[in-house]
Amino acid sequence: MEVHAVASTSHSAPEPRPSSPSRKKRPRRIYDVDDRSTKVDVGSTPGTSWTLSSYKPGSGVAELRSADLTKLWQSDGNQPHLINIQFARRTCVTHVSIFLDVKQDDSYTPTKIAIKAGTNYHDLTPVRQRTFDTPQGWKHFSMTPGTVDAASEEEDEEHGEADDGENDQTLGDGEEGGSDEEGEQDGIRVWLLQVCILANHLNGKDTHIRRIVVFGPKTNPTSSTGTGAAGTLKRTRDVSLDATANSRSKSRTAVGNNGSDVTLAQLLALQTQADAQGAEEAANADATSTPPRRSALNLFGSVR
């Protein structure tokens, strides 16, 4: 009986291994293209310019940005095929979402995509690069500071999907990216984004992309009133303006009680007159307190 008991305990179920900290599951809601509660489409802000390296007639920027996934951008030139997104002001970008459909587009489907960022076309820096086998659906490119300069393989950031063998690569120095809390993606602040199509499925020449959305952090509602030193300065300025307006209102009321309505020009004239009277009284006070000086002629004239 004792031997049997020992044998039964030796075949107990093994304890589950703890998951690696570097493989934590990322929040899915931030990558939901239709959920705008945690992000905004900064690619649609006024003044943003979209340009393409080439396109077929009827398959250009309008089709690329359309929510209708039956429409698409088709290039018409040599690789790499480029999509340039230039903002009117320095803009924070958290991630870029691209819809690919290998079932419909076959050899036109991109399998290697890189994203560069900078202030202009002369200082573009590689930020993120991903390689796919047979991409189907939304593919997300994280632009968080932690992934700007790291090199790692990560799970695909799609709803409920595990690692599908697609390679994520980030370029440069830094730490492994990926926020584990919703809404904690800081993003990068850029003037220009460039999406580069480096290779297609089955070595295809031209490319098809059905939609691209550029996301940034959702504006904090409390930021309109201001926080910190800037908010304090704004509130102080508002209080000063209110105090000035109240004093002017009281002055207008006081003068109005003595007669008819007084205009602003009349108030300024009264103020100037009061300042002049004050200066004259100050001058008179100085004159009375200082003894009169005798001139040199009078002094020598008194000598006999």
What this model shows, in words?
The protein is an alpha+beta fold and 304 residues long. It folds into 2 domains: 24-219, Sandwich (Jelly Rolls), CATH 2.60.120.260; 228-287. 28% of the residues lie in helices and 26% in strands. The protein has 7 helices and 12 strands. It has helices spanning 2-10, 61-65, 102-105, 145-148, 228-258, 264-289, 296-301, and strands at 39-41, 49-52, 73-74, 81-93, 95-101, 110-118, 125-131, 136-142, 167-170, 188-200, 208-209, 211-217. It has a 6-stranded antiparallel sheet. Strands 1-12-5-8 form a 4-stranded antiparallel sheet. It has a two-stranded antiparallel sheet with strand order 3-11. It is elongated. The relative contact order is 0.15. Mean pLDDT is 74; it is low at 1-10, 18-26, 148-165, 172-184, 221-229 and 295-304.
Measured between the Cα atoms of the first and last residue, the distance is 148 Å
Strand arrangement within the widest β-sheet reads 2-4-10-6-7-9
Tell me, what's the shape? elongated
CATH topology of the largest domain: Jelly Rolls
CATH architecture of the largest domain, by name, is Sandwich
Counted up, domains total: 2
Helix content: 25-40%
Care to count the β-strands? Answer: 12
Summing up helix and strand content along with how strands pair, one would put the structural category as alpha+beta
Radius of gyration of CA atoms, rounded to a whole number:
36 Å
CATH class of the largest domain: Mainly Beta
CATH superfamily of the largest domain: Galactose-binding domain-like
Continuous helix count: 7
What is the averaged pLDDT score? 74
Q: Low-confidence runs (pLDDT<50, min 5 residues)?
A: 1-10, 18-26, 148-165, 172-184, 221-229, 295-304
- Describe the sheet with the most strands: 6 strands, antiparallel
Strand residue percentage: 25-35%
Written as H for each helix and E for each strand, in order along the chain, the element string is HEEHEEEHEEEHEEEEHHH
Biased composition (Acidic residues): 151-184
Pfam families: ANAPC10
Family: Belongs to the APC10 family.
Biased composition (Basic and acidic residues): 29-39
